[in-house]
Amino acid sequence: MERVLLLLICFLLLSQPNNCSSSLSFNSSTPLCHSHQSSALLHFRNSFSVGDSDDYFCDLYSNPPKNSWKMGTDCCGWDGVTCDTMTGHVIAVDLSCSGLYGPIHPNSTLFSLRHLQRLNLAYNDFHGSTISSKFGGFANMTHLNLARSSVAGNFPSEISHLSKLVSLDLSGNYGMRIETPSLKRLIQNLTHLTELDLAVDMSSVPPNSFMNLSSSLTSLSLFMCGLKGRFPDNIFHLPNLQLLDVSSNFNLTGSLPTYNWSTPLNFLGLAETGFPINLPNLVSNLKSLKQLYLSNCNFIGSSNLAFLPNLTQITSLDLSYNNFSGQWPWSLLNNAGLTYLDLSHNNFIGQLPDLSTNRTQVSSSNSSSNSQSVSQIPSNLVSLFLSYNLLNGTIPSWVYTIPSLRYLFLDYNQFTGHIGDFQHNSLVWLWLNNNNLHGPLPVSISKLVSLTSLRVSFNNLSGNVESKIFSKLKSLGTLHMSNNPLLSLSSFTFATNILPKLYSLDLSASNITEIPHFLRTAENIEYLYLSKNQIKGNIPKWFLEVGKDSLSNLNLSYNFLTSVGHLLWKNLQFLDLRSNLLEGPLPVPPLGISFFSVSRNNITGQISSSICNLSSVNYLDLSYNHLNNVMPSCLGNLSNHLVDLDLQSNNLHGTIPTTIAKGCYLRSLKLNGNQLEGPLPQSLVHCRKLEVLDFGNNKINSTFPHWLETLPELRVLILRSNNFHGPLGNPKTKFPFPNLRIIDLSHNEFHGHLPTNLFKYLKAMMNVSANKGELKYMGDDYYQDSVIVVMKGLFFELVKIQSLFTTIDFSNNNFKGEIPKSIGELGSLKGFNFSHNNLIGRVPPSLGNLTNLEWLDLSSNKLEGEIPVQLVDLTSLAFLNLSENYLFGQIPQGKQFNTFTNDSYKENRGLCGFPMTNACGNDEGQQPPPSSTIPEVDFEFENGFHWKVVLLGYGVGFMFGLGLGYLVFSSGKPIWLVNIFYGEQDDKVQRSKKNARG
């Protein structure tokens, strides 16, 4: 009976009973893989290095292991291999996420598999190899996937020969280019295409090349292709199109249908494009919409979001980076199918809904009538991005109970309260940093065994952090716990054999006293930030072996280290050792270093010429040490890649290297506070990107370097306290110094008349409105400039320079003649100092136009006449010094002038009136106004910091307070409170978001 049943099965399945062996073994009736195809597969895979895939997609959706590929076994049973059940030919190969590394050779054995119908090599690293024309030889190919496989070069037109192709995915290979002729052939010949993903470089392709796409197309993705111009309208009307993604084509525009838009579209991505979007109209037309991505878009019409809960089919919604404000309609969470929600980088206010009461909590400034009903926990939510908003209150308990939640980003808000207990282990990324959370780090974090990234920095967390919290987190790669002043890490830092996959650790400002011992086993560490701690003494020898081949960023600044030893890190690119107690000779960083700072230490000796072997260095800061001898002449050769060079406050002498490369890339050069002499190197004219030049406090002997006028980006020029001499003369160029904001020529031997024409062309000091708006600083993400200036008679170091900060200091020279009236056009000026010269004539009334002026010093000259009454209108003026001149007449009264003391006017025998003791004739108004009428003045600076002070007259205490206040306001916060360097780059966050959509 069994024999009959088996024979019947053979007949029904194969219709060829003779294929069933006499032994009636069903397995043996299936054709075996052909030996030459088995060998071809093995040879192909063995032509690559094989490791762990580091692509984020592969972390999300792990593929079966490819460890079953062994010689002598049936390849039809190998992981990722499919054979034709009739012939045994290999018809499908899936090697995606296999960690393959190396080029695909044109004579690869892969191309001998002529029967292939499906080929998936996505998420590997083929090392920039080109796609061979032999890919066009797979005549039966229906599915080809090379997504994110690091292929490059021109797209081979032979792929257009694959007439049976229904799915082509080349996405994420931005080294590949598709030209217009190849694209047109592809569209013309591949008439059966249903899925097309061409996220490659198509910057030379006009969008109308897509006009004739097949009507059978169901999916079209052109993400970040460099497309520009108008997108064809007809594509929105393709009858079968379900997915359309043209996101991140910044110069792509077009128009969406406004009526009669009948489409099965369920995925629409228009993020970061120029499409004008009427959101209510779009939502009303797209009834089947499930995934909508509109990050950083151009919205027109109403911005009312109250209708969004009507999107009952929506599963993924991205409205990030759109500056939306007000309350978010949280009732959208009622949608049981919602899996992805990104509202980050907006200005939403209020609190997350408290589902225990089925009502939305509202802030005290809002009426309870604005609360919105939320009836259920969004139990299918996978990704929740709410970063960079104004949300407050506690994080509600339901957030910790969603079983599917993998990505939770609540950073940069105003959440308070404790971090709750996590009920499930699904979380992969958890970012709670930059809030007002307090209390302990919950032990329930130990449940999150899938966690790869945890950030809780910049909160008020407290209590002991035990190593047992992290002992089971074997996948954790990023751990940032910095700047929690009450958090104790002593137990955690001495643990061993935990966090084996850690590659980014930030424990800055965490009160630790030693380098954490668990780093001994951190073989993959790449980013390590331990700045602003209490780490003392020598760097231990074992630490120099940590991440020897992997460490790229190391920040040990603001500690108490005395020695670093021989640096062994081969791939180190960023090393910050500033503000320690390092002694001895200058440490030698690895040759591949990009950022190197040992500023503010006790390093002695000379700068060896070996520093010039740093062929990749962009930022070199050796300032505030005790380095001596001469500057190596070869430093000039670094200028073709060096961006910032800071050698100020050392004991260097000799001349400045004169050979500056023609391809000079310098943006900032600071040599202040040395013993350098000789002239300035005129080869600096090659540095067209120069913004900051500081040669102050040296012994440079030269005339004014008029050739600097031609530098178009120069913003700061400091020549203070040198031996410059001769007249300034008028500019040699028609439009000199167009961007100059700070110029300090004080304490030199310049003479002659002030250059009237110079002040007429200082455009950056004139345009007040152009300097207002968003608070910006000179520098970049890696390095922000600092400078020492004289403000209100005192020296201050601006640890960051506001781009709107402007000052002129020509004091302590031998200038003569009158003050040019054209200075009154410099409406952005904050400070103006012409003291200690031989200037004559009257104080120009035009100075009353400088409404932003905060200090004015014209003391120790030969000025005469009355003080212009127009100066009373300078309501920002906090410091005035007109002493030691020949001024006469009554001192103007009112506003700020009621706050200045006698010191502002002394040694002007002709002046009278308050606050001088000598009255003006019979005038009775010489007494200071009664205390009840002394004005309260509000100082509110552009960064929102507000300071109120009662002006009781100018004195040393007020002077110091106002000066220090300006320093704090200008810098936002002192540099020792600024954590500039930490964490992965933003592109990793964007990449995680894109992959988290699914």
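Above is the first protein from milestone M3; the second protein from the same milestone is given next.
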Amino acid sequence: MRKTLDRAFKSRVFNHFHKRLDVGKVSPFDAEIAGCLASDAFCPKCRCKNVIFFSSVNYNPTSNLDPSPLLGTSFEERCDFDDSEALDAGKDVNAEDIVDANYEPKSGCHFGESDDPDEDVESDEEMERGDANAAVELGVLDLFDRSREDKENKNEPLEEARDESGHPMVRETCKLIELRHMWNQKLEGELRRLLRRLNSHQVSAVLRSQSDERIAVNFFYWADRQWRYRHAPQVYYTMLELLSKTKLSQSSRRVLRLMIRRRITRRPQDFAHLMVSYSRAGKLRSAMRVLNLMQKDGCAPDLCICNTTIHVLIMAKRFEKALRFLDRMQTVGIIPDVVTYNCLIKGFCDANRVGDAKKMIREMPLKGSLPDKISYYTVISFLCKEKRVGEVRDLLKEMKFKANLIPDPVTYSTVIHVLSKHGHADEALEFFRESEENGFRVDKVGYSAIVHAFCLNGRMEEAKEIVNEMLSKGCLPDVVTYSAVVNGFCRIGKIDQARKMLRHMYKNGYKPNTVTYTSLLNGLCRIGSSLEALEMLNKSEEEWWTPSVVTYSVVMHGLRREGKLKEACELVMQMLGNGFFPTTVEINLLIHALCMDGKPGDAKKFMEDCQSKGCTINVVNFTTVIHGFCKEGDLESALSLLDDMYLSNRHPDVVTYTVLVDAMGKKGKFEKATELVKKMLHRGFIPTPVTYRTVIHRYCEKGRVEDLLKLLEKMLGRQEFGTAYNQVIEKLCVFGKYDEAYKVLGKVLRTASKSDARTCHILMEGYMEKGLPLQSYKVACRMFHRNLIPDMKLCQKLSSKLIAEGHSGEGGWLLIKFVERGLTLPQHQ
């Protein structure tokens, strides 16, 4: 087969070459093809001659050279290769070929250009198929075999990983990767030669040495595409382990799929790494579907994958399922260890079942697993958050005497930090003194935590005493400690004391950082000195500190609260110029302030400027500006901005249409309002209760009842709203249009609910106030006819009015209806 491919390929290429040679049109690229055919170059996927040498020849696809028509096809078409056939035959397939079936080599260096792992939106049928609400599949546990696991562990010891990070070739490879942005063909060739000399441990060391896991992923796929190189299984295991520490679940999934296709042995921990990556990305349901993939793959579970599953279930707030999974794994013979119980203890604490967590700690020795310090720390942290110090002390005694775990500096540091974090300063200081009595020396980190707790509570005198104590014991405060004190003074409005502390920092040789200055600027904005804060922010370069996005946001909100909107907008532009982007919520707050100040035009210009500088603008921002125009009565500008939303691919929502309908109704333009409602329904938007109330209010206000009823029929056809007609009657009564309300009464009395009775009572009271008791009597009669009992006191009042006006028959009949239904009338005059 390979000889046939070679012969067919050579004939096609040589015929093309000689044909061009005959007409005298031999290009440099054709000469390179001839040179490749004369050399020993061959395709790594099949042994046909390889003409894909863009990275090693001086060919530019954008030039005027006429390449061979053969190169217009995809890589697989040129080699007559099908990756599915190769999988069946046991052949190897490059990673890039699996990711992109239409792969075409690019000219020059392309490391990291198209290998973004998050660009893979292709669904994985093994993990994405199935009902989203299906229960967790536990069938993978049935694959567990204790005898087979013991045999595999005995006969196949794991190879110990060697640390090759200091090897010269590893360091040289990392240097070349760092120069990837200025790569040329020569540098890529050097990296390619280095790659072929590296063993699996050294390639793994290169992957571990990358500061960004995305770069490691790009290098992984670039290396896999190279000629005469193939990743060893150890490299795949390392890549999955690195990705499990990130949220790059798509990359982790692709690596595991590649292992399955290349028939590389999959271990349970490899599936566990994928589960952890999914859980870090917040895709907990996808993480659980990995078990289905593991079951289809025939990989037997072990304790590692079981612990990971329990951890993911607890993160997903599925604690009862985690307990059922524990029972199932014990049934098949997988014995839980201390890690398993620690996960369950955390689950108990998250469910506020600290009693069960304590009980599990006490039962662990009976189940063959002794609790460790993490078991106790988990419960202690929960008790510290709840300020249950007495139970913390009891647990520390139990930890010491029953579990033989002596409290150490880490124990006290954990308690102090958790208490301080939640503002329990006195309790934290109490454990701090106890730690000193036991001979443990607390470092500046512990001191800083207590100082921060006192500052959160505004107790600055105690915080200053702790700082003085640090100085007296030779434990010098650091910038974190001073920043906490500065923030504390700013929280209680003592800006002068905060400035004094800032000068004290410089005096002691500590340079205030961004957090320190942000706290000071926030304090200035709190007392209404936002312009001073802005001036200090503009002098940041002179003071040798760099503002952060939080720093800009603090000053911007201070200016906005003081009504200095022009300065706030200019600060946002400055912020964008320095590479910081405010959130859509922050932008909307400023837009809303401009609209409330009667400047919707300025708000629109500010929004457009933000959008032109790359800031994210959503439908809420547009709706706020539209509402501003509507408030000023500029409906043309509002409708024009609605068209701009479609042009900028920001489709309006139901709130946008509701705002416009309200403005149109307020101006009496009901034809345009009706058209907008129909357009909203046509686009598939569901009317909200606010939409119904808005439409009903505006149409009833102007007496457009017929138009309103027709429009309500269309709206109710899209989304049922039970009290729509009740609101119509009640709103008409508010505007004194009782006759129109009486005409709609038939639509309300269809259901005979309590809300319908309330509506009828409102109409009856309205008629009585207007001096029309007979009309009110008719409403009561219609209620009795629909077996809806009106209010007895209201009917007695109505009966009295009817008798007083000479309608004694109607008044008596109304009271008789109550007696007929077995209701006792109270005595009345």
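Note on the second protein: The chain has 45 helices and no strands.
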